[in-house]
Amino acid sequence: xxxxxxxxxxxxxxxxxxxxxxxxxxxxxxxxxxxxxxxxxxxxxxxxxxxxxxxxxxxxxxxxxxxxxxxxxxxxxxxxxxxxxxxxxxxxxxxxxxxxxxxxxxxxxxxxxxxxxxxxxxxxxxxxxxxxxxxxxxxxxxxxxxxxxxxxxxxxxxxxxxxxxxxxxxxxxxxxxxxxxxxxxxxxxxxxxxxxxxxxxxxxxxxxxxxxxxxxxxxxxxxxxxxxxxxxxxxxxxxxxxxxxxxxxxxxxxxxxxxxxxxxxxxxxxxxxxxxxxxxxxxxxxxxxxxxxxxxxxxxxxxxxxxxxxxxxxxxx
Length: 317
Known about the structure:
The chain is mainly beta. The protein has a single domain (3-313), classed as 5 Propeller (Tachylectin-2, Chain A). It has helices at 3-6, 262-265, 303-313, and strands at residues 11-12, 30-39, 42-50, 56-63, 71-72, 92-100, 105-114, 117-125, 132-138, 142-147, 156-162, 173-178, 185-191, 204-206, 211-213, 216-227, 230-240, 248-251, 273-281, 284-291, 295-302. A hairpin with a 2-residue loop joins strand 15 (211-213) and strand 16 (216-227). The model is unreliable at 1-7 (pLDDT under 50).
């Protein structure tokens, strides 16, 4: 399997970017990094919007086909509330959405930016109009979090990315468990960052939430490679056991998607593709990603092709 073949698995939507700050009816600097889900027959994006102070909030956009004709809320949907939630003093960012069938609620993990750095907070909603904050669930410095939609042996599971105060140890993807979505423990490294000059060396993090397939939980994660020209954010894949998510079945050696187009290469942060949400319909995955921290874009892929590629790429064997 050649690197050029790997880049063809995700196909960029021909009318990218799908949403920019110009599409909002109120002033904003950028729109990017949106969680995604289906509500009835609508595609719902919960978008990160950065205002002209540099503070982020979340705004809902809806579409019948998930590609165009987006109906965007005319005002922010979820603003930071530092008066009641001091951990949100510098904004709220990068939501991931998981539907919890047991609770008939969507759970939203997001980054709250506190005075001590970023941390993981949780909110729930039944309609994407009103939200109930659950507060912080992981202390700083931690981000890139998402829940699994089911319990494992009676416990909820969450993937996240804490950062050590010792940079030499690297930033790895972790998994933790909870009986109640509030108190978390049994923390362990799930996917370690590689070393050396690899595309996913030293710093990695979860991108969209885990996706359940017949072969396991499909994980899309980002690797951050630091070069003399700056950091490059690329995406790779892993597969976790359906019954035991701590068991990694497969992991790609190569990245599967990276910045190539102008809207991915140039912006607030150059050379970034960063998905926080994807939706599976039949065999098609629709992946919504931020381009250069400036706009929202869409790419599609075949689930069966991704799983076959990952099996051939597998570095766990």
